[in-house]
Amino acid sequence: MTLELFSAQTAVRQKKTGTTLAIPVHPDLERIVATTPIGHLTLLTTKSGKSYSPGDFSGQFRSLCDAADPPERCVFHGLRKAAARRLAEAGCTTHEIAAITGHASLSEIQRYTKAVEQARLARAAMARTAMREQSATEGVKPNSGEVSNPLKALAEN
Q: Which residues are registered as beta bridge partners of 24?
């Protein structure tokens, strides 16, 4: 996927910090918005057609979650953490993640993505080890029926 796919962007002003973020709109969301009949600039509205206040939207989200009966740990703020985790799983840096989530502190993003980073780094370390071992043993073939000492020890236990 190239960045050209993100033709639209939106400006979001964070309530807590007042910081304005320019965030590209994901192509899937752009298609959904383009095909959604709306009569005004607000896409998500209350049943009466008015804009949600932040507290009302959070409350509505909680009501929908309660109706779906997910684990109690599922909260509205979890969407931000999930977004950070998905971005980390896609290989984004902490600075790239902060540009989307609006976190001012990289330490918070690192806390959110610690498990993703650990798993990614562990895979990378094992891949390097495997490549090094492969290059060290290239062209060396064990004798028929010969097993390495570590495998012998493992088989004996």
A: 9
